[in-house]
Amino acid sequence: MYQQIFFLLFFTTLLSFTNIVFCQKAGKLNPEVHPPITWQQCDATGKCDTIKGEVVIDANWRWVHSDQGTNCYTGNTWNPTFCTDGVGCSQNCSLEGAQYQSVYGVTTDSSAVRLNFITQGQGKNIGSRLFLMSNATNYQMFYLLGQEFSFDVDVSKLDCGLNGALYLVSMDSDGGMTRFPANSAGAKYGTGYCDAQCPRDLKFISGQGNCKGWVPSSNNPNTGVGGYGSCCAEMDLWEANKMSNAFTPHPCDISQQTLCNGDECGGSASADRYASICDPDGCDFNPYRMGNHSFYGPGLQVDTSSVFTVVTQFVTTDGSPTGTLSAIKRLYVQNGKVISQSESTIPGLTGGGITDDFCTKQKQVFGDKDSFTQHGGLAGMGKALKDGMVLVLSLWDDYFADMLWLDGSYPTTASIDKPGVARGPCSATSGVPTTVESKYPDAYVIYSNIKVGPIGSTFKKTL
């Protein structure tokens, strides 16, 4: 929840070849070689087939340059020689191949991918955002109605202010190449990102540069906000560090990536946060926020000092992959033990999973705007899941709200005694990016053993 900050949070200290940027043409200086990874597709009996895949880094991290090798974007400003308008920028600038381990701190090993927080190479890279691919040119599409999605995660090195996020978004499988012919780089180069915050920090959207109206960030030397944003539905399977976690559906009124203009994008960069076609808040289930402060964390019931399995189940009204989404359930497996999601202990708010009734009551009890219902609730989220979504794996820190919406008390101006404000045990002064980056440079997250299949098929119920 409150992932509006997402569009400010992926950044690299830009030296010559580590510009954070998004472009549309493919460069010719560095080959693009995707790190391999495997995942598993399971059937109702629990038999799982291994699928070979790849991961690609989001284009917003890459070096973008002219045909002569001159930067099209440096620091947090555009080069006016090449990017005076959106169309010209996409014609003049090329997106270069990535050096995954040395520049971005991304490595894979069989079914596992490790994302390092700080990587010092030619420049200083901070965090990353990856997409799972089915082949060299297309994202893997997941269809999860009536299914479950499970993965193992190691968050033991993620302290307050960090977020290892694994989630789904309604991106085009080819990165937008078919719908936007100006985009000739496509999914191979990580193009086409969108989410329910309608992020405006993306350098290119729908095949054109986002340089018109671009305003450099005042507190970040590498990012800015453009005149356009990129909207689509978002299912946050996992936003977490070792102190707190949440899963959150964010439905939209549309079923594919859509460009928005200025304040109509909503979110924190706009005059009205709720002006967009998407639900920026979502309906979250965070065990700590729901009143259980002894469930998740180091040494607790779900012990974040060691690896555990996260299982998310998408229940439909008739149990089929074509039914209407009626509930999203969560359980954990650690050391052979299945751990059910904790139940809410907030007065007037019962339940241990996400349903429309739970979400309506949560908004009422917490005094939050119910944009979840406004944008279709679980049925709206179910439509996106039915149409197919792309898997995102990321690690980031928060220049907008210091990650307090996940692991501290938020809003910071509200009393901690108000229901819904306490979201984790981290202090009000934690999560400041400059402190996080200096204090936890060796932080990392590891995602592994991704499995998809019918409900009950991806994990063992006993040892």
UniProtKB/TrEMBL annotation:
Gene3D superfamilies: Glycoside hydrolase, family 7, domain. Keywords: Carbohydrate metabolism, Cellulose degradation, Glycosidase, Hydrolase, Polysaccharide degradation, Signal. Its EC number is 3.2.1.91. Residues 1-23 form the signal peptide. InterPro entries: ConA-like_dom_sf (IPR013320), Glyco_hydro_7 (IPR001722), Glyco_hydro_7_sf (IPR037019). GO terms for molecular function: cellulose 1,4-beta-cellobiosidase activity. It catalyses: Hydrolysis of (1->4)-beta-D-glucosidic linkages in cellulose and cellotetraose, releasing cellobiose from the non-reducing ends of the chains. GO terms for biological process: cellulose catabolic process. Belongs to the glycosyl hydrolase 7 (cellulase C) family. This is cellulose 1,4-beta-cellobiosidase (non-reducing end). It comes from Cavenderia fasciculata (Slime mold).
